[in-house]
Design a protein that fits this description.
The chain has 116 residues and is mainly beta. Helices cover 0% and strands 36% of the residues. The protein has a domain of 81 residues: SH3 type barrels. It has no helices and nine strands. Strand 4 and strand 5 form a beta hairpin. Pfam families: SH3_2 (PF07653).
């Protein structure tokens, strides 16, 4: 992490996540947005209907919380958003292709919910 970076640690959305590997760097699946979604804060990403998104982790739902996945948008037409990883509601996407099973349960950390 950049020692000069400033940001804020936001509330955790979950204490565990499912990933394809222990570091949650491998792509789990490719999904298509079925609806637009406007991010309520910096932990989330904006998505547009029809957009493709690479999924890297799936938060383990807790109590009354929503079911959120973490990913980044895909495609040249979204170049300004590519590489930005954030959360989005699972209910707004449909899986198009599964690359690997998300069978590793990994604890979330504060950095998973850090906003610059």
């Amino acid at each position: 992490m950049n020692p000069f970076a400033t940001g804020i640690f936001m509330d955790k959305l979950a204490s565990k996540k499912l990933c394809a590997d222990d570091d949650c760097v491998y792509t789990i699946s490719l999904v298509r947005a079925e609806e637009d979604y406007n991010a309520p804060d910096c932990r989330f990403i904006n998505i547009k209907k029809g957009q493709l998104i690479y999924v890297y982790s799936k938060l383990v739902k807790e109590k009354e919380s929503g079911e959120f996945w973490a990913g980044s948008v895909y495609g040249e037409e979204y170049e300004d958003h590519m590489g930005t990883v954030g959360y989005f509601p699972r209910s707004l996407v449909s899986e198009q292709h599964v690359y690997q099973e998300a069978n590793k349960t990994v604890p979330t950390t504060d950095i998973d919910f850090f906003c610059e």
